[in-house]
Recover the amino acids of this structure.
């Protein structure tokens, strides 16, 4: 079975500072990994996904994530936080058989002016 | 924009009542998923359809829950004899169904409150 663990339920950063959100996965098969963002009262929106083509994945809104097999990690980063990045972020892994997603518990990001 | 839509957006009901939610996926998507999200948690898989066929149901989906996708288009999720523990956000997602790297597109969700 596949699963992900997000370290840190809340992250607070200053505007312009680095955003780092941690995700570790457990998978018995080569994992396919996703990061989604959820703004208040909205559905989940895909930020980026890892499909084994490249270990460094660039996504929307300046986010990127690096797949590290040796560390079983897929951490999400953004060099410079913007006020509009305040949201909840979810890491997810795709099941090997039926493609359903298993999500982490989420990390809420607040951005200080 | 022809994204995933869900209705209603909010539903308040009394314990013991039945409720039904609707999801309209992106038109060319074969796969449709239902997830449930409780406060402070990530979405949890409930069930999914490949066209009109329901292929898997989570053990979270008790016999009070039923889902349909007639003709492989929109889907409905019904909860009978609601309980306070059913209070959650119910999310629908759709995808092309081409493989594990599919992007699932999510609707805005239906927030259920059971009093």
């Amino acid at each position: 079975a596949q699963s992900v663990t997000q370290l840190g339920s809340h992250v607070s950063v200053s505007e312009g500072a680095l955003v780092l959100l941690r995700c570790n996965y457990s998978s018995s098969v080569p994992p396919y990994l996703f990061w989604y963002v959820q703004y208040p009262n909205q559905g989940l929106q895909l930020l980026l996904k890892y499909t084994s083509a490249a270990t460094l994945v660039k996504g929307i809104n300046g986010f990127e994530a690096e797949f590290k097999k040796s560390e079983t990690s897929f951490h999400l980063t953004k060099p410079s936080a913007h006020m509009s990045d305040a949201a909840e972020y979810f890491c997810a892994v795709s099941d090997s058989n039926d493609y359903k997603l298993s999500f982490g518990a989420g990390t809420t990001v607040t951005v200080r002016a | 924009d022809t994204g995933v839509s869900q209705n209603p957006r909010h539903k308040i009901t009394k314990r013991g009542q039945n409720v039904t939610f609707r999801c309209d996926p992106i038109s060319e998507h074969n796969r449709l998923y239902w997830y449930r999200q409780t406060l402070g948690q990530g979405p949890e898989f409930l069930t999914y359809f490949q066209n009109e066929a329901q292929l898997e149901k989570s053990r979270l989906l008790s016999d009070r829950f039923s889902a349909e996708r007639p003709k492989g288009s929109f889907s409905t999720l019904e909860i009978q004899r609601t309980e306070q523990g059913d209070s959650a956000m119910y999310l629908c997602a759709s995808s092309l169904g081409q493989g594990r790297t599919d992007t699932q597109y999510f609707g805005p969700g239906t927030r259920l409150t059971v009093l």
User: Anything to note?
Assistant: The radius of gyration of chain B is 13 Å. The first strand of chain B starts at residue 5 and ends at 7. Chain B has a mean pLDDT of 93. Residues 36 and 42 of chain B are 8 Å apart (CA to CA).
